[in-house]
Amino acid sequence: MAGLIARYTEWLHTRWPAGTVEKLPRMRADGGTNLPGVFISGDLTGIPLLKFSLDSGARVVRSIASDPGLRSEAQGKDTLDLVIIGAGVSGMAAAVEAQKQRLAFEVLEATEPLSTIVNFPKAKPIYTYPRSMKPAGDLQVSADVKEELVQELKDQTARAGITPMASRAERVERQGSTILVHLAGGGTLRARRVLIAIGRSGNFRKLGVPGEGLDKVYNRLHDPKDFSGKETLVVGGGDSAVETAIALAQCGAHVTLSYRKSELSRPKPELLEKLDRLRRDPKADVTIERPHSERVTTAAGPFVMKRDPEGSVALKLGTRVSEIRETEVVLTGAGGPEVIPNDVVFTMLGREAPLEFFRRSGLRIAGEMRTRQWIGMGLFLL
């Protein structure tokens, strides 16, 4: 009980969420977790910088490879040395290092390799701080523009022979000296060690339609001014979609909002009121100082609005995207397919937050008390 009280006191004074506190999994300095053999690297370590993500992925794998117990554990031939969950920057750095260390490994990716960077706007400047830092491992970066950086990373991973497996990990489970990685659809992988490098954003849901992999398709909005005058499709029916539509229209984009249901019932009422005002009058004084969605990273209002060209908003409720083409998209509704001109698509669909993966796997999260701790606290207070 004394230990419980001490942990509660620490939590109360150091981790009580007085403001908005982002929860992160508990881990040791080497990336290890409370589940033996399971490690974490990348943004989830608490430092969302590109070079630190590269560095942490490579260093964890070096530590795993140098562990004498890795090779001495008796396992079947179908057991991998390492499963890397996530093919982002950190996961790819880990994979390159695993290849160098001659480990038997697999990389799992639920959406698209390097998806966070791929979804940056075109020609976005990339700041690789600290400039003097050289990350551990062979995967390095020097480009300072999105497209060049993506190509640089793809070239290096291709030369290393890294080909991620297209699959989503649902949870991990310790079974004796083996770790089971449960996959969506019912399959499993067996491994001696697991590295989780899924980032903070989790897995964004996909449309699953032809053309979704085109460069003009994004799942985040960074700078709406980049799309002034563009024919823009926003897909979704939540806060993210509505805030995206508002920001784009105020910066001069011609926005079509497509949602599969016949009405928008999920967004906050104040957002719907602002969207309706903007739909009726593109010059309406509509402001969103602090977007509710983490996928919209800029404020919206007259202070960013471009009068020339003037934006617009059109609603296409009860429709689904059936195909994305280079200069148009196909929407299908009750009246059949409709082809509309299009320059850019924002798929602002739901996502699975990474913390749910950790909870399903029994991995502890900083600031969260487990059931037995709450029970103990209740008994203490009685």
UniProtKB/TrEMBL annotation:
Keyword set, alphabetical order: Flavoprotein, Oxidoreductase
Keyword Methyltransferase among UniProt keywords: no
UniProt cross-references to SUPFAM superfamilies, sorted A to Z: FAD/NAD(P)-binding domain
Any one GO molecular-function label of the UniProt entry: oxidoreductase activity
Pfam families, per database record: Pyr_redox_3 (PF13738)
InterPro entries, per the entry: FAD/NAD-bd_sf, Ferredoxin-NADP_redctase_2
PANTHER family: THIOREDOXIN REDUCTASE 1-RELATED-RELATED
Protein name per Swiss-Prot or TrEMBL: FAD-binding protein
